[in-house]
Structure prediction request, 275 residues.
Amino acid sequence: MTGAAGGIGAAAVRSLAERGYRVYATVRADDAVSQALAEIQNVRLVTMDVTDPASVAAAADTVRQQTPALHAVVNNAGVIVQGPLELVPPQELRRQFEVNTFGPAYVTQAFLPLIRAGKGRIVNVSAPTARVPMPFFAPISASKAALEALTTALRLELEAWNVPISVIEPGSTQTRIFDKAGAAAKVARQHADPQRVRLYSDHLARIDKTQAGMRQDPVQPVAEAIVDAVTARTPKRRYVVGGARAIGVLLKLPTGLRERLVMSSLGLRGAVAGR
Ligand SMILES: NC(=O)c1ccc[n+]([C@@H]2O[C@H](COP(=O)([O-])OP(=O)(O)OC[C@H]3O[C@@H](n4cnc5c(N)ncnc54)[C@H](OP(=O)(O)O)[C@@H]3O)[C@@H](O)[C@H]2O)c1
Prediction:
């Protein structure tokens, strides 16, 4: 389980460990939060930064020394990079794809021999924005859409070895991911050209207001969906959780209507260009 230090990953680690699975919980820092995880029965801590192929390879070696086979790999680590695409700094755009898209690819490459040996499976945590991209969330939307494209192609590539791959699609969920994204976006905005930031002042105020009032689902149903994908005899291709279920309805609508609804849901209908 990558990104096990908090939020959905930590909840899924606990749920799997309670059911008796030995869980390799991967974290970036061996800090107090990680140590609390390590104290749970059946949990083993492994340090890994998913954006660094050398770190991923070292983590795979560590796990290989402890077990010859894995039942599942869960690519959960993720970040949100948000803001007007015009103002997103290149390094932030790269970080978005490094963590959400390249990370799961590196992890899958490194762990596939252990997965094959265990007749195992892969579970990738995506987001609704993969299927319905959101304005001012272009980086996260694009990174998860790319993750889903990798997932679909890989599922077919691995058919001969019968390695199932599932996508988990949580709705907006109570974790720290939005606070972290908001803080990073604020820093990016401080370094951007103030004149260009002003162009978006109405849009950004509306997005902030919408985010402040956004309903967020509890974390446990997402953790349970991951447990289902890990334990089901025949795992589903996609597990849609909580508010993400509305995406199925949105996708059936004509594009123009869907786009108007997306703008309304973010409070952006009628937003005006700043000067
Ligand atoms: N919360 C939601 O509303 C929501 C909705 C849809 C999808 N998701 C997806 O759910 C997954 C889990 O997110 P969450 O909501 O639980 O957020 P979270 O609490 O912020 O957890 C994300 C985890 O990813 C880890 N991570 C970030 N960069 C990493 C890197 N370079 N290498 C390894 N680990 C890294 C974080 O570690 P650090 O603590 O060290 O930063 C953290 O443990 C993500 O893929 C996210 O896109 C979340």
In short: The first helix runs from residue 7 to 18. The chain has eleven helices and six strands. The chain has one domain: 7-174+216-244. The CA atoms of residues 112 and 234 lie 19 Å apart.
